[in-house]
Amino acid sequence: MIKRKNMPTRLLKPGMVIDQTIVDRVGRNLVIKGSVLDEYIIDSMLKLGIMNAYIQDGEIPDPDESLITSPEAARQIERLTKADRKKVQLSESVKARVSEGIQFIYNSGSDSKAMSSAASNITEDLMDAIFKNNAVALDISALKTSDEYTFKHSVDVATIAMITAKSAGLSKTEVYNIGVSGLLHDVGKTKVPDEILNKPGPLNDEEFTIMKNHSLYGYRMIEHNDELTQAVKLAVLQHHEKIDGSGYPLGVKSDQITKFAKILSVSDIYDALVTDRPYKQAFTQRTAIEMIMSMTGELDITIMQKFLESMILYPVGTIVELSNGEKAKVVSNNPKYILRPTVVGLQSGNVYDLGNDFSCASIIIL
């Protein structure tokens, strides 16, 4: 069984597998979780002052017999499998362009025109990926345009927001503009001191006050850019506002928050929850979805529903464990019940329509 073990860096050996991501002081990934260590990596960690690290310890388990599919299950899987809705897919060449463009945005200093031009180019690539393939759904784990948190997060938020906006019936122009908003929503963090931005622990009250100003800093960086619409600028300013007035930086309520900002808010919260950071481990996608669902007092319920309908939590073909002890394969998804797809027990061949069959009400995916 594979376990997680903390070791002094000086005792690490080539061939060990690291079980955490090592980042530098500005949040860039230096060693990716799951990487096989060599002498160069270990020496570099020591030079950076990283004195301890988690590694994978133990043997790879034998194949799980419970994953063997019975003949009856195979028949049911073949009969019932229904392909997922078309998802956003980015080619490797597009991912490379997007990664380069987003890095340019965040390294442009206060050059607002350069930022908006790069954001426009990236958004065009994302629009092609969404509209040429008529994509209506998103598997967030399949995007991965960068290993650096700020860059990846901005592209994720933009893409989630665009798909949500499309699902909500917004026009192509609005979908485009919300993509630009998503790419620019965190540019104000370039004005936050690194020691606050990348602090490996909770912020104190003074630090959190400075951090909360990043949306205001971002707005001020672009407010005089006539290449950006007012809707884009307000989305950058308001993406941390909540409909009950508990957000920041202005503390405004629902009727004063723009639709773009409401969409960005859901997208931003979800992606932050499912992403590893130096001070926290990522939540599972399921847990993040459940947390989003619990925020009906803070997030616009209509936008939340369109967001949920756009996500594919368990892609068809995924093996899941049910609360009744069975392993099962996902054969179809229902956008109205993203936590409860239709699955087939791998050994029993039983069909569980978790979203519609009342007799399955007590069964959940673990």
Secondary-structure blueprint of this entry?
Layout (H helix, E strand, L loop, with lengths): L2 E6 L13 E2 L5 E3 L7 H9 L4 E6 L13 H10 L11 H15 L5 H20 L17 H19 L4 H13 L9 H4 L7 H8 L1 H9 L7 H9 L20 H15 L11 H9 L7 H10 L8 E3 L5 E6 L9 E4 L5 E3 L13
Antiparallel strand pairs: 1-4, 2-3, 5-6, 6-7, 7-8
Helix pairs in contact: 3-4, 3-5, 4-5, 4-6, 5-6, 5-11, 5-13, 6-10, 9-10, 10-11, 11-12
Features:
41% helix; Hypothetical protein af1432; globular; Molybdopterin biosynthesis moea protein, domain 2; four-stranded antiparallel β-sheet; 366 residues; two-stranded antiparallel sheet; alpha+beta; 13 helices; single chain
Description:
The protein has 3 domains: 3-57, Molybdopterin biosynthesis moea protein, domain 2 (Alpha-Beta Complex); 66-83 and 315-366, no CATH class; 92-310, Hypothetical protein af1432 (Orthogonal Bundle). It is built from 13 helices and 8 strands. The protein has helices at residues 39-47, 71-80, 92-106, 112-131, 149-167, 172-184, 194-197, 205-212, 214-222, 230-238, 259-273, 285-293, 301-310; strands at residues 3-8, 22-23, 29-31, 52-57, 319-321, 327-332, 342-345, 351-353. A 4-stranded antiparallel β-sheet has the order 5-6-7-8, with helices on one face.
